[in-house]
Amino acid sequence: TGPQCYIMDCAPPACENYYVPEGECCPRCPVACTKDAKICPDGSVVGRDSRNNCEFFPCPVLTVGDGRRHGPVPEKAETASERLSRLAGEFPDHPSTAVLIFLVAAVTGIVLVIALLVYLIWLVRVTLAAMATNKGNAPNTA
C-alpha cells in the first residue's frame, strides 16, 4: 500500500492554483507516514521515510568483524509490532520484566519501611529507659 497522506499546509482539491484529485496529496506538501518502526538485523531501529513513499529507511549494513553484534544475523528484519507479537506468543505465561521489577521494588520498599519502624521503636525505648535511669541519678541542684 502507498503512504497514508495527511495534508499539512494545503487544502485539496485545489493546491497552488491547480486541481488535485480527491484523496491525493499535493506534490509539494509534506506527507506524514504511519508511526511504525522496523527492527534491523543488527538490532537497530529505523522509521519510515516520507520522501520515499513511506518506505522504511534502509538498515545499516553489517560488515564482518565490526564488533557491533555477535551471533547469527536474521535474514529478514521484523517490525517492532511483529517482534512484540512474536515475543508475546512465545512467553504467554510469563509476567513481563517491568512487572517483576515493580514487584521486587515494592517488596523491598515495604521491608525497608518495616525495618525503619522497628529501629525507631527500639530507639524510643532505649531513650526512655536511659532517661528513666538518669532521672534517679541526677544531681540535686536545689
Describe this structure in words.
- The chain crosses the membrane at residues 99-122.
- Keywords: Membrane, Transmembrane, Transmembrane helix.
- The protein has 142 residues and is an alpha+beta fold.
- It has a domain at 95-137.
- Helices cover 37% and strands 10% of the residues.
- It has helices spanning 80-90, 97-137, and strands at residues 14-15, 18-19, 38-39, 45-46, 48-49, 55-56, 78-79.
- The strands form three sheets. A three-stranded antiparallel beta sheet has the order 4-3-7. The chain has a two-stranded antiparallel sheet with strand order 1-2.
- The longest helix is centred in the C-terminal third of the chain and has 41 residues, at 97-137.
Oligomer: single chain
What Rg do the Cα atoms give?
A: 33 Å
- Order of secondary-structure elements: EEEEEEEHH
Spans where pLDDT lies below 50 across 5 or more residues = 1-10
Distance between the termini: 99 Å
